[in-house]
Design goal:
Blueprint (H helix, E strand, L loop, with lengths): L1 H11 L5 H52 L1 H10 L4 H8 L11 H4 L5 E3 L11 E4 L2 E3 L2
Antiparallel strand pairs: 1-2, 2-3
Helix pairs in contact: 2-3
């Protein structure tokens, strides 16, 4: 009979009580409540870093484009593209190590855009514009 009582008490200790389950859910809720703003902030920072890195890649592509085409031919092709950002991106795409998309909008994270300088021979940086305005990098 003593063995039967021991088995029954052993079976009772296998399951969690309702209070223990509610306490665990409450602790997980508090931790997630504190963690979500940090995760959101980190995601925004990582998108900003990706945009800056890709803007730098465009700057390097401009230099490579000028070296391959020559100064005068590069300027002529650049001016023929006009103020069309997509056409200028198409000129630079062969010189970018990782151009995942045919469209410039797909190359940058959403909310970020770039403006090219009208004169490629000046070798000034592209202007990067993010959700909060111009980003100086």
């Amino acid at each position: 009979m003593n063995i039967h009582i021991t088995r029954r008490s052993a079976l009772r200790r296998v399951a969690f009580s309702l209070v223990e389950m509610l306490a665990a859910v409450a602790i997980i809720g508090v931790i997630s409540f504190m963690a979500i703003p940090s995760i959101t902030r980190m995601r925004g920072d990582s998108e900003r870093n990706v945009a800056i890195t890709r803007a730098e890649a465009l700057n390097l592509a401009q230099v490579s484009f000028m070296q391959v085409k020559g100064r005068s031919d590069a300027q002529l092709l650049w001016q023929q593209a006009g103020n069309n950002v997509q056409a200028r991106y198409n000129l630079l795409k062969p010189y970018i190590a990782f151009a995942e998309d045919n469209l410039l909008n797909g190359y940058f994270p959403s909310g970020y855009q770039v403006q090219f300088n009208s004169n490629i021979t000046s070798l000034s940086k592209t202007v990067l514009i993010g959700p909060s305005g111009r980003i100086y990098y």
